Amino acid sequence: MNRRSSCAAIAALLSDAVLASIAIPIARAAEATQRVAHMGFVDSRSPSTPLHGTSAFWERLRELGWFEGKNLLVERRWAEGRIDRLPALLSDLVAHKVDIIVTMGTPAATAAKNATSTTPIVMAGVGDPVGTGLATSLARPGGNLTGVSFAYAEGVFGKWLELLQETVPNLTVVAVISNPDSQFVQNAAKQLAYAAQERPVKLRFIALRNPEAIGPALKQARQQAQAMLLLSDPLTTTYRKQITALAARYRIPAMYSLRDFADDGGLMAYAPDPTVAYRRTAEYVDAILNGANPADLPIEQPTKFELVVNLKTAKALGLTIPESILLRADEVIR
Description:
7-stranded mixed β-sheet; Rossmann fold; disordered N terminus; alpha/beta
């Protein structure tokens, strides 16, 4: 072989080596983009009673490149408003060796944390992550859990009472309907009691632990108070249409802590904007599936609250919503 042929052969070998060195990472990148993530999704409620804004979670995942049936496999579990079912549902998901668990509501997040200390957990709709023991702090939650909180800022509790006072003439007693077994509700009840001390209004706490108690609870509210405030939990959100229908039947002006109740016929709701929270939840999922450590991702607090007023319900109750409230409302249902 002459020198020219030798050089040509060496150049060909080098060219092949360069092409191979480029092809390997390209192949690996293609393999990475084609991998399928296995996600567990747990909601304390029912698939027939999704909360407003939940669709934003799935929409944002698609925007980030996660498509169910292509590179995302989703195992869904629903507690149907029965908190006692959650431990078994979470144990089942852990047994399926999912890559990540997404929970909706405080009880589901608590059950997930009890079920695994290694599988990443992203929670949404949690009332008080630190107060309920889910995280050691908001800035650095530690462990395998993070997400987006629906925690109510301190002034929100007084805001609920203020809006009711502006709407219901001569209001002196408010019935607070809630599940006293919920740790979030326990903390919220304390905040409400403190807020009521600064106002000429008394609170009557009425327990609601199961679906059978919904009718008696609202009847008691009608007998003991001029208005009611409902603290939401998986049970009440699952049966929200029944609750708002009974509130209308008993002619009880009501304030709700989630906008879904106003959408379903409740008088008013003042709560975090759920669409923003659920989109951020999807971004947390994306970050973790791309290698982020949940312990290093701060738990976000809501920054945007919305006031929703249902004028149709107000008219049926014979109430005139003050112009001052209508001007502040983010949405008026007519």
